[in-house]
Design goal:
Blueprint: H1 8-12, E1 15-16, H2 17-30, H3 36-48, E2 62-63, H4 65-79, H5 84-88, E3 90-93, E4 96-99, H6 109-122, E5 127-132, H7 138-146, E6 150-156, H8 159-171, E7 178-182, E8 196-201, H9 216-219, H10 235-244, E9 248-257, H11 263-272, E10 276-283, E11 289-296
Parallel strand pairs: 5-6, 5-8, 6-7, 8-9
Antiparallel strand pairs: 1-2, 3-4, 9-11, 10-11
Length: 297
């Protein structure tokens, strides 16, 4: 960090929490960092093991040299482009705080709309759902946290991602409601012996050639396997659309997050299977068609 935080004298001095917060925030501003104050607060809260709101109650707290060094390390990582969530180890999702790390896609606000649509589709009765390609487990854990009558299976091809999802389920006390399966999309369920009332997925949907043009902190840090959707970004939608009907109950729902401008194509893929009806799309908060849903005929 720059002066005065980056000087040897700064490393040895004691800091009041508010002074450290102001100094680091000004430093981020000087580096052109967006939402500099918010990012500083989140990094400092993580370094101190506090809730971000607790910072406001402890402005006069003296930050120890060890705590300040942890914070400085966080700032250095963020300046290298490492996503904030990977630096702190946590991502906010609906009313949850989820563990994340390199190798696991960071949950986005857009995916919260997927959960919203799924909850509307499920209603209040008992249901068994599949979170397909679960990553951090965000979708399954959020649904089970908000609807106690739901039992979920969360699957992913990546065992490291599943390990993090298991930790998140434990963290939010839904371990008894969520089972975890390692496998490639619907292959573990090909027998169709345990049909689901809904399948929910945020699959990879970035066109392969477009990955190079993503923001550096996404392109350089987040797992390409969770981003790359093939030549047109539609490969996984085709596979899910072809297979989901075989493991859904009659009238069961399919809810998919889609990329910008993909909703029409995904609706067309689902219609072409002749396995679904009530095919429709839902916009996110920015007005982009973000979620495609349907029901098995």
């Amino acid at each position: 960090m720059g002066a005065p935080l980056g000087t040897p004298e700064a490393n040895e001095r004691s800091w009041k929490l508010l002074d450290l917060l102001n100094e680091a925030s000004s430093f981020f501003v000087s580096k052109g960092m967006e939402a500099a104050r918010l990012q500083t607060e989140l990094l400092l809260a993580a370094a101190l093991g506090l809730n971000r709101l607790d910072l406001y109650l402890q402005f006069e707290k003296i930050v120890s040299a060890q705590e300040a060094e942890v914070f400085r390390g966080f700032v250095r990582e963020r300046l290298k482009g490492k996503p904030l969530q990977y630096v702190t180890g946590f991502a906010a999702f609906r009313n949850l705080e989820l563990s994340v790390g390199p190798g696991v896609l960071i949950p986005r606000p857009e995916t919260e709309i997927v959960v919203e649509v799924a909850l509307e589709l499920l209603g209040e009765g008992q249901a068994r759902i599949l979170d397909l390609g679960c990553g951090s487990g965000a979708i399954a854990i959020a649904v089970c946290s908000e609807c106690e009558t739901v039992q979920a299976v969360a699957s992913d091809i990546d065992r490291d991602a599943l390990n993090i999802a298991v930790q998140n389920a434990q963290r939010h006390a839904v371990s008894e409601s969520v089972a975890f399966v390692c496998g490639d999309l619907l292959e573990p369920f090909a027998g169709g012996t345990a049909p689901f009332d809904a399948i929910i997925s945020n699959p990879p949907y970035v066109a392969t050639a477009a990955i190079a043009g993503l923001q550096p902190e996404v392109r350089d840090f987040e797992p390409h396997g969770a981003l790359d959707g093939g030549v047109e970004g539609l490969d996984f939608f085709q596979r899910i659309g072809d297979g989901a009907a075989h493991v859904l109950v009659a009238g069961g729902g399919l809810v998919l997050e889609v990329g910008d401008g993909q909703a029409e194509a995904v609706c067309g893929l689902l219609e072409a299977t002749e396995s679904y009806d009530q095919i429709e799309s839902r916009c996110d908060l920015t007005g982009i068609q973000r979620v495609v849903s349907c029901r098995r005929r």
